[in-house]
Write a structure and sequence with these properties.
With 139 residues, the chain is mostly helical. Helix content is 42%, strand content 7%. The protein has helices at 23-26, 33-40, 43-46, 70-78, 85-92, 96-108, 126-138, and strands spanning 57-60, 83-84, 112-115. Helix 5 crosses helix 6. The termini are far apart. 14% of the residues are buried.
Length: 139
């Protein structure tokens, strides 16, 4: 006698419900160029951006101004602790170029501070390397 065969149940995929009311603002921004132009405004045409790199650390230095856009508000809330521009771009789900435009505006208004990342020593401490080597040899 053979054991009964189990049939796998596959969950039915249902599309997510459309956003309504306040939920519409919580979702990720659409990936169309018109939306990105609206976020950055006319600042893209000026072409003068702050010298910001992917690893530049950004820290909010002031409270939220009442005239801030939703993207700037989200950026200022994220940057209460130091974050790199790459992390900000990932958390906000915005391209790096858009984040640099937003940060340029915030830097000009002195709402955020940009800091270079902490640079480690060029050479490692010899005693530390020897201790690691001896530890590996004992294994």
């Amino acid at each position: 006698m053979t054991p009964p065969q189990r049939q796998r149940r596959h969950p039915k995929e249902q599309p997510p419900p459309p956003p309504t009311g306040d939920d519409a603002r919580d979702g990720p921004p659409p990936k169309n160029p018109e939306r990105l132009y609206i976020i950055t405004g006319a600042a893209v045409e000026d072409g003068e951006r702050a010298p910001i790199d992917l690893v530049t650390l950004i820290v909010a230095s002031a409270d939220l101004p009442p005239s801030a856009t939703p993207e700037q508000t989200a950026l200022l809330r994220l940057c209460q602790a130091p974050l790199s521009v790459a992390e900000i771009s990932a958390y906000l789900n915005l391209p790096f170029s858009v984040v640099t435009v937003l940060l340029t505006e915030l830097l000009a208004a002195e709402l955020v501070q940009a800091r270079a990342p902490i640079v480690r020593q060029a050479r490692a401490d010899r005693s530390l390397l020897e201790a690691v080597m001896h530890g590996l040899q004992k294994l």
